[in-house]
Amino acid sequence: MALLNRPDTMERINTPELAQAFIAEQIQDIKAQVGDKKVLLALSGGVDSSVVAALLIKAIGKQLVCVHVNHGLLRKGEPEQVIKVFKDEMDANLIYVDAVDRFLDKLAGVDDPEEKRHIIGEEFIDVFAEEARKLEGVEFLAQGTIWPDILESEAGIKAHHNAGGLPADIADRFELVEPVRILFKDEVRVVGKELGLPDDMVYRQPFPGPGLGVRCVGAITRDRLEAVRESDAILREEFAKNGLAGKVWQYFTVVPDFKSTGIKDGKRTFEWPCIIRAINTTDVVEVTVEHLDPALMDHLAMRITTEVEGINRVLYDFTPKPPATVEYE
Ligand code: XMP
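ok -> C-alpha cells follow
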C-alpha cells in the first residue's frame, strides 16, 4: 500500500535512477490497490495531474478513465496537447469535455473577481461530477495531490484544493489514489521526465486554477479572452526563443477592460492595452520583477500590437509583491 506520509529519512528524488525506482514501486502499489477496477482522474494537463495520469496508464492502462474539461480558460494549444500526449501517444482512455460555452455563458457580465473564481470552481465540479455519474464500475478517484498540499492543509494555510468540492454522492463512491502525494514539486518533475512526458508539460510554469479567467480582468468577453490567449502565446514563444522559459518563474499577459486611443495604418484606434508580467520568486510570498532586455520589449510590443486583435498598446508591470499580487484578480 502507498505510504500515507513522507518519511523524514526519504531521499530527495533528483536522479533518473531514483525516479525509475519510485515509478516501479508506485506501479506495484497502484496495481495492488486498484486490482481490476476502474480509476477516474480529472486531467488538466498541469504537471501533477499529467504525472499521475502517466503513472496510472503505465500501471493499469485503460482501467484509467481521464476526463479533460476544456473550460475555455486554458492557454493556447493546451487541450490539443493533452489529447495528443495522452490519447494519441499513450492510447489513454480519455474523455474530452468541451464546456467552453457553458463556462463563458455563466461568466458573462460577472466582474467581481471572487465571484468569477467561485463560478469557475463550481462549474468545474458540476461538469466533472456529471461525467463521473455517467460512468459505471469506477471505484477509485486519482488525484495529483503533492506533499506541499498536505503540509499546507495540515497547517491550515489553504484548504487542500484536491480533496474537497465534489458532491457527496460522488465523493463517497470513490477511494482515493494519490501516487505522488509524498513528492515535492521538483521530484514530480523528475518523475514526469522519466515517464516520457514532454518538457513543456513537465517544466511548465505555475498556472492558476481559474486559468486565463483571472487575466481577462473584469467581466470576461470572448474577444478580450482571445486577446489574452493570443498575447500569452506570443510571450511564451518569445521567452522560449530567448532562453527565458526555464529561467523566469512565471510570465504571462493580462488584458484589462478599458480602452485607449492609438493609431494603426494612419487611422485612429480605440483598443485594449496588454500588460506583460514576468516575475521571480522562491516562495510566492515575496516576488521580484524580471527586467527584460529592451530589444525584447520592443519586439514584444511590435508583435503583440500587430498580431493580436484589439490591442494597440503594450505595458510592462514592474511592481514586486508586495504590494502587488502576482495575478490581477
Ligand atoms: P498571487 O496572485 O496570490 O499568486 O500573488 C501567487 C501564485 O499562485 C497562483 N495562483 C493560483 N493558483 N489557483 C491556483 O492553483 C488559484 O486560484 C490561484 N490564484 C493565484 C499564481 O499564478 C501565482 O503563481
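The radius of gyration is 21 Å.
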